């Protein structure tokens, strides 16, 4: 499908991979390290870790994250509780629930609570988790693009309204004619 060059000129620039901030939450250091390695190998440099649910919520309270990779089964504060509270703190963040003990019921529950995706570990193929990460990043990018375009549209509308007011002030009032 051909694109209009004028429309393409208005499209926001694609965000670089180092723009995106990730939070990896897992009580297993090996799992956190693996996910960090996958992200960094694929060009995502802003990767932060939390060893438990409480640390994850503290991180979410203190910083903006675009994608949260979240282990479901952790001691004390589990992933479902972190997802519930995390979506309140950062409604625009995308959460990917990861678990070694998955069930259809828990996957549905996580998705109903706002998780972007649900992945079981161990990862049989790195490509599976990578596709989910890329999907979450794409959703964040689209949301960002929509915001930029809405801001530009608001500016155009303000300019048009201002121009309309200026033009109306230049048109002399004609006797017997109601002003517009």
Task: Please describe what this structure looks like.
With 180 residues, this protein is an alpha/beta fold. The protein has a single domain (15-142), classed as 3-Layer(aba) Sandwich (Rossmann fold), CATH 3.40.50.2300. The protein has helices spanning 5-10, 29-41, 53-62, 79-89, 104-112, 126-170; strands at residues 21-25, 46-50, 67-71, 94-99, 117-120. A five-stranded parallel β-sheet has the order 2-1-3-4-5, with helices on both faces. Helix 3 (53-62) runs parallel beside helix 4 (79-89). The two termini are 43 Å apart. The model has no long low-confidence stretch (mean pLDDT 87).
Essential attributes:
about 180 residues, alpha/beta, Rossmann fold, five-stranded parallel β-sheet, 6 helices, elongated
In short:
With 180 residues, the chain is of the alpha/beta class. Helix content is 52%, strand content 14%. A five-stranded parallel sheet has the order 2-1-3-4-5, with helices on both faces.
- Per CATH, the architecture is 3-Layer(aba) Sandwich
Write down the CATH topology: Rossmann fold
Query: Residue ranges: pLDDT <50 for 5 or more in a row?
Result: none
Q: Any idea what the radius of gyration is?
A: 23 Å
Number of domains: 1
Which sheet architecture does the biggest sheet show? 5 strands, parallel
Overall geometry: elongated
The total count of helices amounts to 6
Assigned CATH class: Alpha Beta
Strand order of the largest sheet: 2-1-3-4-5
Report the order of strands and helices: HEHEHEHEHEH
What is the average per-residue confidence, as pLDDT, rounded to a whole number?
87
Tally of DSSP β-strands: 5
Task: Give the CATH superfamily.
Answer: Response regulator
Q: What is the helix fraction of residues, given as a range?
A: 40-55%
User: What structural category characterises the helix and strand content?
Assistant: alpha/beta
Report the end-to-end length measured between terminal Cα atoms: 43 Å
């Amino acid at each position: 499908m051909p694109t209009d060059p004028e429309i393409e000129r208005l499209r926001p620039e694609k965000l670089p991979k180092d723009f995106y901030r990730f939070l990896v939450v897992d009580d297993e250091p090996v799992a956190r390290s693996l996910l960090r390695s996958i992200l960094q190998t694929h060009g995502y440099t802003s990767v932060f870790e939390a060893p438990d649910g409480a640390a994850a919520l503290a991180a979410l309270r203190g910083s903006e994250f675009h994608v949260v990779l979240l282990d479901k089964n952790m001691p004390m504060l589990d992933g479902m509780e972190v997802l519930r509270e995390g979506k309140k703190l950062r409604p625009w963040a995308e959460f990917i629930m990861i678990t070694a003990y998955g069930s259809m019921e828990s996957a549905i529950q996580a998705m109903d609570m706002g998780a972007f995706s649900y992945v079981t570990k161990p990862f049989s193929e790195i490509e599976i988790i990578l596709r989910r990460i890329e999907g979450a990043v794409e959703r964040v990018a689209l949301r960002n693009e929509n915001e930029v375009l809405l801001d530009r549209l608001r500016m155009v509308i303000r300019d048009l309204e201002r121009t309309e007011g200026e033009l109306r002030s230049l048109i002399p009032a004609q006797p017997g004619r109601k002003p517009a």
